Amino acid sequence: MTADERQARLAAFMTERFGVEADPWPDGGPIVPVEQHVALAAALQAELGYTLYVYCVASHWPDETPKGGDLIPEHYEVATGLRSVGAGSHVAMWRVSVPVGAGVPTLADLFAGADWQEREQYDLVGVVFDDHPDLRRLMLPEEWVGHPLRKDYAIETGHLPWR
Predict the structure, then answer these.
(1) What is the pTM of this model?
(2) Which of 7, 27, 49, 106 gets the highest tally of CB atoms within 10 A of its CB?
């Protein structure tokens, strides 16, 4: 199976089973309803052989009003990537979008590799992963205030002993 055929198979699977919009998707994959996040990961793992948890990356988006557009409220986007292993390896990517203050269901129960990656995104960006088995800071001290990779985190904030 060629890379294009694998991508077409994945696109058809995600469109038919999970109602995501058809190709072409942006580089980060389609936005999937947060309610489908765990079901999609489980189906990719069990039915299509995507067994390796590659990444979890969160980004913070403050309120924004594009020129002539409507207000896009503050939210997080969490991108996830899973890889099939062996001959013809391929990465399945998708994103979920949630308002700040809402949680994203954890994938730690399906993939051991999700544990620390979700903790890192919680620590640095502030995304809460619902039902995570050990959601606490991973890189920064417990007493650290805020999440330094949020776009509203003041860059000049001093933190001893670093500044």
Answers:
(1) 0.88
(2) 106
